[in-house]
Amino acid sequence: MSMESAAATAGLPRLVVAGLSGESGKTLVSLALLLEAGRRGITAQAFKKGPDYIDSAWLEWASGRPARNLDPYLMGFERAAASFARHAVPGGCNVIEGNRGLYDGADARGTHSTAELAKTLRAPVVLVVNATKITRTAAALVLGCRHLDPEVEIAGVVVNQVSGARHERILREAIESTCGVPVLGAIPRAKADVLLPSRHLGLVTPHEHPDRGLLARQLREAVGAYLDFDRLLAISRQAAPLAVPYAWAPEQIDGSGVKIGFLSDAAFCFYYPENLEALRATGAGLVAISSLAAPQLPAGLDALYIGGGFPETHAEALSANSSLLASVREAARRGLPIYAECGGLMYLSRALTWRGRRYPMAGALPFEVDLCDSPQGHGYVELLVDRPNAFFAPGTRLRGHEFHYSRICGPSGTLDTACAVLRGTGCCQGRDAVVTGNIWAAYTHLHALATPEWARGMLQAARSAALV
Fold first, then answer.
1. What is the pLDDT of residue 254?
2. In this predicted model, what pLDDT tens digit does every residue of 359-388 receive, in sequence order?
3. I want to staple 122 with a disulfide (CB 3.0 to 4.6 A). Which of 205, 207, 240, 345 is the partner?
């Protein structure tokens, strides 16, 4: 990649939609902005701060383009900024949805927070404030955010959960007179779940929403109609020029002739676009496979990639597709390299139990998994590869994240694993990445921009297995 100058990136309108906490309404506001841009014929591009898959899937739905995760903790600020500059639309509507509260990061200093990302991208921030049962206190919250770090450009406020005209009038007057920041939207009180239903891992996915056309209309009516889109777009277009030197470049790897399958459907939908793109960039061929409908694995695969998702909510259908389960089990027995993350680990197990029912799975791994009522691992993960495996050299350090309600059942101390967990939970006893033959099955999700070794490891495993 060549160096990018400030002039080349000056025409990248951008806006960070942040909140005071989770559940503030950031996602609803972001979706409404993207949908309105599309309605007006403005090309939109969405970004999600942090490692979240489901919010990103909804942002992709609303924008019509793959949403990109920008995670400074995993990939560093330079790579996050480079990814933004590469994918943002010149002259378009580029929306970056924050995560958690504006200043919340992985440590008490908020080192990798939405605020720090906004500063790196020189992006104005619109702060979404849940105004349930408060009036002037909302101004205190906004004022505190402005003064905590004056380098963060809080360009506007959207108040959410407004109970009526009087409530809106007081909120506007208090915030604008006290903070000198315009209120650019006042969204009436409503239950967010009515628009975007939730479940144990967060929102339902777009794959599983019963009527996305209706949802688009509802978002425009319940949220978008109460936003000052013209002023929000104008603020995004006033963002300062952004100079991003591409000081890094992906390693050139030859994957020509390599054929990699990946499970892709409503049950397995947690894939970062960059991971699949990293494999395609090498010249490798990718084959999407439905875990719900395919009778067997395609012939000639050199490796299989099984990402995360919701195997538990599709457990009955997955278990019923016994011919594909048998095909995967036999491929694993023959030594096909299989890289599995979280839901993929569950699929490769002997069985998963959820809500009192047991569903047989592929049986390529020597354990079963239980789905619990609370998270068994949630947050960033750091791993040290310290044992041989098909994908990563011992000594490699990996940064990723985990969010799983399942856990491995039985005597986990007998499992062969490849990694020590330096931060996080992993699969068992301070370890992660179960290895059996050429299988890597971990609860940790990796992002290709954060882990350049990932694509190389996939191809090396595929080529090495083919030589045996």
1. 87
2. 999 999 999 999 998 999 999 999 999 999
3. 240
233-246 pLDDT tens trace: 999 999 999 887 65
Of 93, 145, 269, 342, catalytic: 342
Task: State the average pLDDT over residues 3-22.
Answer: 74
Q: What is the pTM of this model?
A: 0.93
- 3-state SS track over the chain: CCCCCHHHHCCCCCEEEEECCCCCCHHHHHHHHHHHHHHCCCCEEEEEECCCCHHHHHHHHHHCCCCEEECHHHHHHHHHHHHHHHHCCCCCEEEEECCCCCCCCCCCCCCCCHHHHHHHHCCCEEEEEECCCCCHHHHHHHHHHHHHCCCCCEEEEEEEEECCHHHHHHHHHHHHHHHCCCEEEEEECCCHHHHCCEECCEECCHHHCCCHHHHHHHHHHHCHHHECHHHHHHHHHCCCCCCCCCCCCCCCCCCCCCEEEEECCCCEEECCHHHHHHHHHCCCEEEEECCCCCCCCCCCCCEEEECEECCCCCHHHHHHCHHHHHHHHHHHHHCCCEEEECHHHHHHCCEEEECCEEEECCCCCCCCEEECCCCCEEEEEEEEECCCCCCCCCCCEEEEEEEECEEECCCHHHCCEEEEEEECCCCECCEEEEEECCEEEECCECCCCCCCHHHHHHHHHHHHHHHC
Per-residue pLDDT of 118-129, as tens digits, reads 999 999 999 999
| Residue 269 among the catalytic residues | no
Residue 16 near residue 235 (C-beta atoms within 8 A): no
User: What are the phi and psi torsion angles at 335 (to 5°)?
Assistant: 105, 15
Lowest mean pLDDT among 88-102, 152-166, 198-212: 198-212
Please report, rounded to a whole number, the percentage of residues in the chain having pLDDT higher than 70.
93
| All domains of the chain in start order, with CATH | 6-237 (3.40.50.300), 259-467 (3.40.50.880)
